[in-house]
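Protocol step 4 of 6: structure prediction from sequence.
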Amino acid sequence: MLLVMLVVVVLPLVMVVLHMHVDIGGGRTIHQIPQEAEPAKSTQADIGSEDDNSNAAQRVNIKDEGSLHRLVRETEENNAIIGFFEKGADGGVKDREEENSAYQLFRKAATKNPKVPFAKVIDADLAASFGVDKLPAIVYMVIPENEQAIHMRRAQFFDDLTMYENDDPNRIFGTWTPGPGFKAWGPEQALSMLRKQM
């Protein structure tokens, strides 16, 4: 009975050891590395798994004023970060592969701020309709409570690229509302807003 138990317990262990170590003679042994199954191949480009992007912010391309307004209006916090970039010869963002470019900063910031949607605009005319005439520009847009207009500020980030939400009305460079469109913001509007907050 004891012999049967030893054979049942020890034999599989010996088989595992023999499978992992192969004697090639002369006192030398090759240790085999367990083979992993090859990943399934796909005809689609892999831009990361859901796990890789689970902490990334939503990123979308904006083609018109209405889409941008809906993006800001329909988020939980009524805010978004919009990257305005020059269009390259291939129709994508110009210089998007350059390390430390504004676009690379924009992409990295999207992974650090998962609760804020990010969108990019590569149409200079659309950028101009939001008061952005110098590209590239990364803009924080928010619709404050009890307001209709989008308030626009240059986006600010901490060193770790988390967003700094600056609510100083002096940092606003303009507002945008459907219909009238862009309206420049100055010290008078900032002072008026500060008075309302008092």
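Step 5 (inspection) to follow. The first strand starts at residue 21 and ends at 25.
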